[in-house]
Structure formats: C-alpha cells, structure tokens
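User: Could you check the structure of this?
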Amino acid sequence: MAHTEITYAVEDGVAVVTLNRPDKLNAWTPTMEREVREAMRLASDDEAVRVIVLTGAGRGFCAGADMDTLVSVQSSGQQAPRAAAPLPFDPHARPDFTKTYSYFPSVPKPIIAAVNGACAGLGLVIALYADMRFASEDAVFLTAFARRGLIAEHGISWLLPRLVGMANAADLLFSSRRVTAGEAKELGLVNKVFSREAFHDGVMGYAAMLAREVSPRSLREMKREIWNAQFQGLGEAIDAANRDMVASFTAEDFKEGVAHFIEKRAPAFTGR
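Assistant: Sure, the predicted structure tokens are below.
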C-alpha cells in the first residue's frame, strides 16, 4: 500500500505509523487522515502486529489542521468540502466510536501516541484518542482553538476533562497556552516523559514489552472494556466484565498464561 503523507513499518510486533510532512510539522490533511485510517486497518488485520505506535517525523508530532485548509475555509466562510464519511472502522463498536476522529477506541490493539514535538489543535485531538501518550522532553501541547476563533472540536470537550479534570481542561481550552512536556505529565495529559536521547528507545521498548510479554487477547478485551466503561455505571461495568471473564476461561491465551507461569518460561500467546 503506497502512502504519500505517512510511513508504516512493523518491527518486533509493533506497527509504527509516522506522520510524514516534517516541513509542515506534520499538519493534518485529508490525505493524511485517509492514510492513517488505512494504516490502522492494516495493523488491525495483521496478526503479527500487537501494538501500534503513532508518531511524527522531524520536529513535530502534528501541528494541527493544515493552514491552507483553514485559509480556504476562512475565505469561503464554509466548512471545507469532505469526502463521504467512511464506514465504521468496527461496525460492532459503540456509535460514539464511529465518528471521523473517534474510531481509535475501536481499533482492537493498543495505540500509543509518541509525541516527539509540537502537538496542537487537531493534532492534540488525535493524540487524546490514543490509549496512552508518551512524550519527548521537546514536546509542547496546546489546544489552539480559541486563538483561531474556533470551538472545542471533535470531542476534545469530552476527552480532555477525563484526563486532566474539568478546571484544567477549561484552562487549556480557554487560554490555548503552551504546555511543556513536564507540565503535561503533572496534569495527567501524558503517561511518561523521556529525554530527547531516550525517547525512541523508551517508547519502542515499552511497546515491544507489550507485544512480547502479555496476551494480545487480554489487550484487545481490556481496551474495549476501558473505553466502553466511560459510558457505563459501575454495576454495568461489573456485569460486562463478568460475562467477559467466562469467555476468557475458555480462551487459548488463558491456558497459555497459566502454563508459561507454571513452567517458568516465556509466554507464547496467540491472541485467541
């Protein structure tokens, strides 16, 4: 599959999707949107892939929507023309996870946003839909919308308060101020911050650990449970987990999970 605005590579069970417009700080375009979706499908369907890392080439992760698109919208006073909405990534997922940018939760493998630099506007929205965010010390985050005369787009008003709390979300959205990697870690916006030199190895080491040491089936089921639980009460989450546990007891990965522990050897999970 040929790509023009991303690159895609698989190593040690980890698919790395790299936004590849470094001269534009990987500003988001309709082409990039389509290619990222294609890459997520490719990774989802590949049994050799167990974890997905999304990152950016050069100095930025994603600086937001491409400015040429915003200028075109500003000049015309109308929303930029879009292709027909794609079919749901997973037709069995909650309707909440079938929107243009909200499909990451329906990707059946963990997605780690490896934020290597500027992460702004739509780029921040994309990162928030990932399951985890690891940042380089060079990363900087900003919502940007208020400084463009826009609103809290694409569900960030739902995502951000769940990560940093209502008051902090209001601060970041209202002010559009720059947030360093260190502050992002303190707020809970990112899981971990690495030095510039350790960033690549740190992210890939964690991703490879997940790919090598834990059950792909467990990752898939836990991801679904975590995201669905955001719409459930405690009792509903317990009932859903009880049903899932019954299915787990008959799975190959449960049998292997017990066997490798007893036999004191590395696991050989199949994801089934």
